[in-house]
Specification:
- The structure is a single chain.
- The chain is mainly alpha-helical.
- Helix content is 70%, strand content 0%.
- Helix 4 packs antiparallel against helix 14 and helix 7 runs antiparallel to helix 8.
- It is globular and about 60 Å long.
Length: 351
């Protein structure tokens, strides 16, 4: 084998199809990008629906005040409580708006990642190493967050609006925001409650208008964006890089079955989420700041103020609240996401 042939055979899979791109740019290039969007959107919707109850429980545990009574404690007990209080709709609360968010979010993320890998490798002429994968994933994460952040904020509000979270008492709140727990609870529900039949774009629009009217206009829709981007960049970068590294070890030629692919996704998601989880807690805290007359008792003046406040009042453990149910959901969620993405992409992309 010549050196040229050896070089060509060692190129990463990202260069596959480049010959077709060079020769048939108008007939292959655009359908390929479209397939990334469709596959990414399908992957996101499937993965989030599978773990919707755990996703909602994670958000509730992240933002509930630290009180002695009434907290959602324990994964199983909390899920049973959610079912008893709200039924199946409680499990799916916020999932409609979450899917509306995750479809474009996941589509943008996967498509951006695929395109950035090609750009960093000069379309297959350079090696696709771990730093390039990390950089591609990080930039893809930031891009997808900026494109869909208002929907993520609304989803967080919908997830906790009807939960029986113990709200801060009058003693814990400034005099200007005094409100009985029952009154604050009612305000939460009236501002953000939706029925299962209204989880659609009209719900998203109404909730966004509520935020804009009561919490500072358009900037209110982007509260916590910087914290989210800082947390998402390493998370997505580690997630993609770990997944592809594991695929090279766990799914060698001849052993590329569904179980091994799912295992790679589950491990990649668990590792990346554990390493970056404090950023997720900060993001949720920032998103519910000012919600419904301060019923949750959060009043932060930025990410650093929120970080300092959490450490002072709850210690380092406060940065990992909700981690266990989050890990329980991450494994099946990321596994489903990567598996669905590759499955749909293989069906759409012509060999």
């Amino acid at each position: 084998m010549t050196s040229t042939q050896s070089s060509q055979s060692s190129q990463p899979k990202i260069s596959n199809g480049m010959a077709a791109v060079n020769g048939q740019k108008q007939t292959f290039w655009m359908p390929e990008i479209a397939s990334y969007f469709v596959a990414g959107g399908a992957a996101g919707a499937a993965s989030r629906t599978v773990v919707s109850p755990l996703e909602r429980l994670k958000i509730i545990q992240q933002v509930q005040p630290r009180t002695s009574d009434g907290q959602y404690k324990g994964v199983w007990r909390s899920l049973v409580r959610m079912w008893e209080e709200e039924g199946f709709k409680g499990f799916m609360r916020g999932n409609g708006i979450n899917c509306l968010r995750i479809v474009p979010y996941s589509a943008v993320q996967f498509t951006t990642y695929e395109q950035l890998k090609k750009w960093f490798t000069a379309y297959g002429t350079k090696e696709l190493d771990t730093p390039k994968r990390l950089a591609s994933g990080a930039l893809a994460g930031i891009t997808s967050v900026c494109a869909t952040y208002p929907l993520d904020l609304v989803r967080s509000r919908l997830s906790i609006a009807t939960a029986s979270i113990p709200l801060q008492t009058e003693q814990a709140l400034p005099s200007s925001s005094l409100m009985t727990p029952s009154g604050a609870k009612q305000a939460l529900s009236s501002a953000y409650h939706t029925s299962s039949s209204s989880l659609n774009q009209a719900v998203s629009k109404r909730a966004e208008l509520t935020l804009m009217r009561e919490e500072g206009g358009v900037p209110g829709l982007y509260r916590g964006l910087v914290t989210t981007a800082v947390g998402v960049a390493p998370y997505v970068g580690i997630n993609f890089a770990t997944y592809e590294a594991l695929r090279g070890v766990v799914t060698p030629p001849g052993k590329n079955n569904a179980v091994r692919k799912l295992a790679c996704g589950a491990l990649a998601g668990s590792i990346s989420q554990t390493l970056t989880y404090p950023f997720d807690v900060l993001r949720r805290k920032m998103q519910v700041t000012g919600m419904a007359h301060g019923g949750l008792g959060y009043h932060y003046n930025g990410a650093f103020d929120a970080l300092g406040s959490i450490i002072r009042t709850e210690g380092l453990r406060g940065l990992y609240r909700g981690l266990w149910p989050n890990l329980l959901k991450v494994a099946p969620s990321i596994a489903t996401s990567f598996f669905t993405y590759e499955l749909v992409k293989e069906l759409l992309v012509t060999p």
